[in-house]
Amino acid sequence: MEKFTTHSGVAAPLRRSNVDTDQIIPASYLKRVTRHGYEDALFSAWRKEDDFVLNQEPYKNATVLVAGPEFGTGSSREHAVWALSDYGFRAVISSSFADIFRGNSAKDGLVAAVVDQQVIESIWDYLDANPGAEVEVDLENQKITAGAIVEPFEIDPYVRWRLLEGLDEIGITERVQDEIDTYERARPAFKPVV
Amino acid sequence: MGKTLAEKVWEQHVVRSADDEPDLLYIDLHLVHEVTSPQAFDGLRTSGRKLRRPDLTMATEDHNVPTIDIDKPIADPVSAKQVETMRKNCEEFGVTLYSLGNTEQGIVHVVGPQMGLTQPGMTVVCGDSHTSTHGAFGALAFGIGTSEVEHVMATQTLWLKRPKTMAITVNGTLPEGVTSKDLILAVIAKIGTGGGQGYVLEYRGEAIEQLSMEARMTICNMSIEAGARAGMIAPDETTFEYLKDRPKAPQGAEWDEAVEAWRALVTDEDAVFDKEVIINADELTPFVTWGTNPGQGLPLGANVPSPEDFVDPSERLDVERSLEYMDLKPGMPLRDITVDTVFLGSCTNGRIEDLRSAADVLRGRTVADSVRMLVVPGSARVRLQAHEEGLDKVFEEAGAEWRHAGCSMCLAMNPDKLTPGERAASTSNRNFEGRQGPGGRTHLVSPQVAAATAVLGHLAAPADLEGELVSA
Ligand code: SF4
Prior knowledge:
Distance between the termini of chain B: 51 Å
Mean pLDDT of chain A: 95
Bound molecules: iron/sulfur cluster
Mean pLDDT of chain B: 96
Largest interface: A-B, 58 and 84 residues
Strand content of chain B: 15-25%
Oligomer: heterodimer
Number of strands of chain B: 19
Shape of chain B: globular
Number of helices of chain B: 16
Largest sheet of chain B: 5 strands, parallel
Helix content of chain A: 25-40%
Distance between the termini of chain A: 33 Å
Radius of gyration of chain B: 22 Å
């Protein structure tokens, strides 16, 4: 996984709440067996609408998404994170994320930054007034900068550490292999096997 | 202080717990399907890792598979490739796979319980958010992403942050004609699609205790629609009776030992939940959704809401968008909504009891000419059971299409899709925009409401049909 320290890029305001994973990437794109190449799938239904934010010139190359509450609800598909990353996004800012989506972003180097909805509203207003402006997501100092707006954001400390270090989680777990072996030996015999 | 059910199961699975890191939990059962696994198997191959416990891993084909002509090759080449990839992966890594045509094939969350693989006190994961279904047995069961799938494959563990706990206490008794689907839709409407975020829900109380295992699975299944990764119900006699003599249930002395351990899996009297919600079952009526998320639901007797009813500006905007997408006028009675399609199936409501209750409504009646009805059993075994009971005949005589097992129109990855603008009453769990096909419109309903709707051509409950229920 690529390390994430600070990222600064064009931010797109997505003024919608409850953006579910079927919206981020519809199931028809889930038939592929690869881990990359989903940029065309991102928000595919909405991208057919001319007025959709990512179809507007300054936002076509956006790398930071500023979305309404309950972002990423619905399915467990990690494809939603892959599609965002493949399109070029490095961070999503919202006032709340679905648990599975947030977990998945952490595995793929996409920062899911949580701030209050009022902060989201003020960043939206700032972006409307300054289309194409850049927003900085500073993971080291855990803060977001959008023009004069400087706000701390929330992220799980363990996730933050892994993102900063770019660590492979399976590798970390393999270091405690012995503990897994010990646990496994003590499991009750009545537990089923397939 | 006492412990909740979720805390007990959690603690029994902690492999490692240290400051400044999540707990490392052992996973008892890993369920796999074709959509979220190929990249994980690939990851193992690339890193030269083995699958640690093939004997705790089970795979089935469900999301992509066709529900007709299952003896022919899968027509869509991309779907065919995904299914083929899983067959190869399972063979290479030694995973038991129930393929199309096998009597154990079906939706992963229907197959696990019916084989007796899902048992109280287990940790169960799957690259699928509706893994919450298995919580009905008092298991801690939740959906995971593909990176986590790979992690479980390699280590049989997961790093997880201890969730908070929420009690959903349902007092009273569900009235006749009101099902566990209506109950869970009402719960989601009450707490919202984000209400359960960060929590494990425990459904408890009189009304829950009275439910069958299959009805409990419907409830736990939709926990994720309230934002909770997992929902649980304490195991009791109903649970043990359901499990006894299932192929993978413990036998003989091990059965007794297991039941003794399972009996301890109840929330202690003095345990404290982080949050509690109380629902009165006596007041519930059939519930349907009108919008584009599962929290946008109302009793069937209500009218389509107006954006003006909502004070919160972002919610108002949401409602406006939903109504526009659903093409509904504020104030119109929900019963006046006509549908083109009725879908009976999915891991929410594709089990034998669901088919029985819909068949009871349809027996001696016919599906309206304007409606196509698809009946898709949750597994090949459910289909066989339905044949034994003659339910297939009931559906076919009523004019419904009787299909083979799979996810089908629940998420439209196979040919069973809505066309743009088409409207469906569906027993599945998600009414998101385009979920059942691009531009399709979905109303979530119970199996009984689905059947009555099919007969009348508009959203309806069995009580709306003339005459008495014609029972077998
Ligand atoms: S039936 Fe629907 S919700 Fe259930 S596993 Fe299949 S696609 Fe997912």
